[in-house]
């Protein structure tokens, strides 16, 4: 993947507040952000926002996505229903690094109710995800088998 510049971000209501923090952080870093919603604390359905982020990536308007719900799991399951999307729930830097190196993950899923107030940890996970390259080689062969049904 060429240097990541364009990022699609989405959340449900459980992830809305963390999404605002994440969008502000990414803006300060100079990334171009497509905010796919949601835009309030009103209860919504996470598959809708996973779909919006997946479509941004599959249309190549964004190179990667960040999805947030309460656990990170719902948005991850939903996003992974779309061929070409490889979403990974990460709760530490090591997972973020390995899923980029080995899985070529193109969506980082975060659980807003998992981290407490540890915004610095979330920022470090995001940085690791965005700055780590895919290893390719044998991992490319495996990645390319993921979308075969
Ligand atoms: C919403 O309450 C919650 O179910 C959702 O954010 C997510 O955690 C689902 O996986």
Descriptive terms for the model:
alpha/beta; Ribose 5-phosphate Isomerase B, Chain: A; 6 helices; 5 strands; globular
Question: How would you explain this protein's 3D organization?
Answer:
- By secondary structure, the chain is an alpha/beta fold.
- It has helices at 16-28, 46-58, 73-79, 93-103, 119-131, 138-144, and strands spanning 6-11, 32-35, 64-69, 87-89, 107-111.
- α4 (93-103) links the parallel β4 and β5.
- Bound molecules: D-ribose (RB5).
- D-ribose binds next to α3.
Describe this structure in a few short sentences:
It is built from 6 helices and 5 strands, in the order βαβαβαβαβαα.
Return the CATH topology. Ribose 5-phosphate Isomerase B, Chain: A
- Could you say which structural class the secondary elements and strand pairing correspond to? alpha/beta
Please provide the ordered H/E string of secondary-structure elements: EHEHEHEHEHH
Largest sheet: 5 strands, parallel
Strand content: 15-25%
Give the count of structural domains: 1
Helix content: 40-55%
* Overall outline: globular
**Continuous helix count:** 6
What is the rounded Rg?
Answer: 14 Å
């Amino acid at each position: 993947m060429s240097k990541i510049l364009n990022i699609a971000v989405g959340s449900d209501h459980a992830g809305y507040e963390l999404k605002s923090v994440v969008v502000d952080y990414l803006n300060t870093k100079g990334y171009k952000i497509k905010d796919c919603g949601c835009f309030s604390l009103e209860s919504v359905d996470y598959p809708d926002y996973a779909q919006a982020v997946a479509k941004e990536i599959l249309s190549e308007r964004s190179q990667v996505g960040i999805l947030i719900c309460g656990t990170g799991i719902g948005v991850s399951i939903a996003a992974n229903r779309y061929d070409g999307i490889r979403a990974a729930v990460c709760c530490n830097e090591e997972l973020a690094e390995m899923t980029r190196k080995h899985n070529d993950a193109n969506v980082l899923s975060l659980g807003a109710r998992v981290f407490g107030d540890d915004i610095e940890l979330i920022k470090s996970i995001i940085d690791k995800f965005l700055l780590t390259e895919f290893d390719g080689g044998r991992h490319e062969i495996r990645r390319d088998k993921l979308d075969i049904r």
